[in-house]
Design a protein that fits this description.
With about 250 residues, this protein is mainly beta.
Length: about 250
């Protein structure tokens, strides 16, 4: 019963409050009819194609009684990130380091034993190949297989261009607790910076049935080691001393 004037805007709020880490689907349907109750004339209503038939309601006299706008809505729950300490990967420029990052996914499996999506964590442990999105299957006895996707996301395209070729990520271990339903993923992160930098990234894990977990990461490249020390000995006052050395370009 909402009346709209010509070119008037109507806001339709959609509220989403998930209780489990799975995707929810809904459809928002808007039905518009003339205020005076008359139909829109349409000469050949029998020739309405299938796509148009789902968007209009046709009256008995052949006119168009109402117009439908149908908007599908996908609700994808995201685990909260409050008070998460970023996993820091630190390396000197022009060197290479490997770190293991462990993340916990809560509320993956809906049910009585699954914990609600109220906590997740990321931690990095020292352990002495481009970013890819890979499908991970986690199975637990007689339960159904849980498929996960993971990738590194960056704050901007500029950051992605800087870190994309310098960071490698690979899943090396995955397991699930049968009682709590918590899934533990351990990634091996390779960082080989070519210059000093400090960039943030986000490790995003998504379940194919719905649900997203995000873990902050921080990549720090410190100053590189000194290549060489060049000593120039003076031959006398007001006289030039010259030392020659070669520089080799690493690229074209």
């Amino acid at each position: 019963g909402t009346r709209l004037a010509p070119k008037e805007k109507l806001d339709i709020p959609v509220l989403f409050m998930p209780d489990t880490m799975k995707m929810y689907e809904a459809v928002v349907v808007i039905h518009v009819m003339r205020e005076n109750g008359e139909n829109w004339p349409y000469e050949d209503s029998a020739a309405l194609n299938k796509g148009l038939k789902s968007s209009v309601t046709v009256a008995e006299n052949g006119g168009i009684q109402g117009i439908l706008w149908i908007y599908p809505v996908h609700g994808i729950p995201e685990a909260p990130q409050q008070k998460l300490v970023p996993a820091v990967v630190r390396c000197r420029a022009r060197q290479r380091v490997e770190r293991r990052v462990e993340v916990l996914l809560t509320g993956v499996v809906p049910g009585a034993n699954a914990m609600p999506a109220t906590r997740n964590s990321a931690m990095v442990n020292t352990n002495k190949p481009a970013n890819i999105q890979e499908e991970v299957q986690v199975t637990d006895g007689f339960s159904t297989t849980v498929e996960l996707l993971y990738e590194l996301q960056y704050q901007s395209n500029e950051t992605k261009s800087q870190l994309g070729a310098l960071v490698g990520m690979h899943l090396i271990q995955r397991e699930r607790d049968t009682e709590s339903g918590i899934i533990t993923l351990i990634f091996n992160i390779v960082f080989a910076p070519n210059k000093p930098m400090r960039n943030e990234a986000t490790l995003v894990v998504q379940c194919t049935t719905g649900g997203v977990w995000k873990f902050p990461m921080l990549f720090i490249a410190t100053e590189p080691e000194v290549d060489d020390v060049i000593n120039i000995e003076a031959v006398g006052l007001h006289k030039e001393s010259i030392v020659g050395f070669k520089l080799t370009s690493q690229t074209r």
